[in-house]
């Protein structure tokens, strides 16, 4: 039998359970074949945090370390995010962290697996998982970390720089959720600060943006 092409995959909807609880989602996501990324990734990586969290932090996809560990934001970018949240005054118990895409997309260079951003089709295929997480957690607000996460919510025209650092509305035509978040705040992905030459300046901007979210939580 010929291998399926990327266009043959149906999206994640068929794998999302009717019981939309975090334990059920964590179990069900491992069987997902909604896009081609499941073939090379070690495992799917669902979000992590309190089921009653006030803030959902939404990134792009798991990285190499997250793919192995099965937990989101456990690598260098996650450590920087933890520090930025503490500096902004957001308590860990108030957060749930996840990614728009649940499998690691990469290309091999020798023995290394190098991050490769997910395609628009892969982001759309994974959207039912994000919708289910939003239903399970029902956060008051969502912090978008980077452009891919923003496009997952607002569509392909979204640009972080046009709206970062201020509270914006959840789009009415976005992911299907019964109780949409009260607000959204866009900022850079912490990995951007890690890669930047002006790392201190980028980090300070990330913290300043997160302080806006902290003020919205109260």
Keywords:
alpha/beta, Uracil-DNA Glycosylase, subunit E, two-stranded antiparallel sheet, globular, disordered N terminus
Describe the structure.
- It is a single chain.
- The protein has 218 residues and is of the alpha/beta class.
- The protein has a single domain (11-217), classed as 3-Layer(aba) Sandwich (Uracil-DNA Glycosylase, subunit E).
- It has eight helices and eight strands; from the N terminus they run αββααβββαβααββαα.
- It has helices at 22-28, 64-69, 76-88, 120-137, 147-154, 160-163, 190-195, 199-217, and strands at 48-49, 55-59, 95-99, 106-109, 112-115, 141-145, 167-168, 183-187.
- A hairpin with a 2-residue loop joins strand 4 (106-109) and strand 5 (112-115).
- Helix 3 (76-88) crosses helix 8.
- The longest helix is centred in the C-terminal third of the chain and has 19 residues, at 199-217.
- The protein is globular, with a radius of gyration of 16 Å.
